[in-house]
C-alpha cells in the first residue's frame, strides 16, 4: 500500500514549482491500483529546464521521475 502519495514538480535546483494545480494529490493506493493525475503550472513558474516529478510517500522514500 502506498500511503499519502504526494506529487511535487521540481525545477533544476530541486525547488518546488509554484503555484501548481493537481487533479488529485495525497493519494492512497493499494498494490493493484493505479491513478492518472494531471499536474499543471504557469510557464513562467519554471525556468528553461525540464521539471522532475517527485512522488513522496508516507511509508517509503521519495522517488523522482523525469517525464
From TrEMBL:
Top-level taxon of origin:
Bacteria
List the GO biological process terms: carbohydrate metabolic process
Domain Exo-beta-D-glucosaminidase Ig-fold, first and last residues per copy: 2-59
Pfam families tied to this protein: Ig_GlcNase
Enumerate the transmembrane spans. Answer: none
Coiled coil location: none
User: Which protein, by its recorded name, is this?
Assistant: Exo-beta-D-glucosaminidase Ig-fold domain-containing protein
Q: In which organism is this protein found?
A: Streptomyces haneummycinicus
